[in-house]
Design brief:
Spore Coat Polysaccharide Biosynthesis Protein SpsA, Chain A, single chain, globular, two-stranded antiparallel ribbon, 7-stranded mixed beta sheet
Length: 226
């Protein structure tokens, strides 16, 4: 485990949420709180986290600043960039002197403190770790014509989630080298030549992208007594 080393968290919530039917998913109600408040609350209560930067879009940054004013570990609520990696970098730039950085999607409100601390423990081995779950569906590789080319073995396939945890020097170098667009930070770090350790996530750690996901999150939250 990582001891006596400063840990910062970047919560990335700057997406437009085009598939939410006009609902701002970060400010959407979920179990008596907003989605964003659930996410930040987990990091606030996690003893391993020292400070938090929250990255929001132009459309909801003012509401987010008001909402998060009572969270003592939130040191910055800043605007995101055009790409996801631009938004993450904006958050990182507000975290000073952190040896470790935990990056999490704001659209995953059902994470737990254990997923954060497990990620820090896994990252201590290699400097980079990503939360993931084994794939349960059968995965087929298709060509441009939509005909199946290959059925892939599930034994080594993982669906990657967040949190993702990195030593600050590793993620900084990866961002300096990045040119193409990446969908997650682990991919960016892999491209820079670093090894990323996968650690066991949770099938309940869903990402809210549609109203149906929001409804499911409410059910799952209720089942665990949230």
């Amino acid at each position: 485990m990582i001891n006596n080393q400063k840990v910062g968290a970047v919560i990335v919530a700057a997406g437009s949420g085009e598939r939410m039917g006009g609902v701002d998913k970060m400010l959407a109600p979920l179990g008596g709180r907003t989605v964003l408040a659930w996410v930040v609350g987990v990091f606030q209560e996690c003893p391993a986290i020292d400070e938090i930067a929250v990255v929001l879009g132009e459309h909801n940054i003012e509401a987010g600043q008001r909402l998060l004013a009572g969270f003592s570990k939130v040191i910055a609520v800043c605007r995101g960039g055009e790409r996801r990696q631009d938004s993450v970098l904006a958050g990182i730039n507000h975290l000073g002197g952190c040896r470790w950085l935990v990056i999490h999607d704001g659209a995953r409100p059902l994470l737990t403190a254990d997923l954060i601390t497990d990620g820090l423990a896994a990252a201590a081995e290699s400097g980079a770790a990503a939360c993931a779950v084994p794939v349960t569906d059968t995965i087929k590789l298709a060509g441009d014509d939509d005909y199946v080319r290959e059925t892939l073995s599930r034994k080594r396939l993982w669906a990657v989630q967040t949190p993702q945890v990195f030593r600050s020097d590793i993620i900084t170098v990866a961002y300096r080298q990045a040119q193409a667009e990446f969908t997650d930070d682990a991919s960016l770090v892999e491209k820079a030549g670093y090894r990323v350790k996968l650690y066991k996530g949770s099938y309940g750690n869903i990402k809210i992208t549609t109203p149906a996901h929001l409804a499911l999150a409410g059910v799952l939250l209720g089942e665990r007594g949230g």
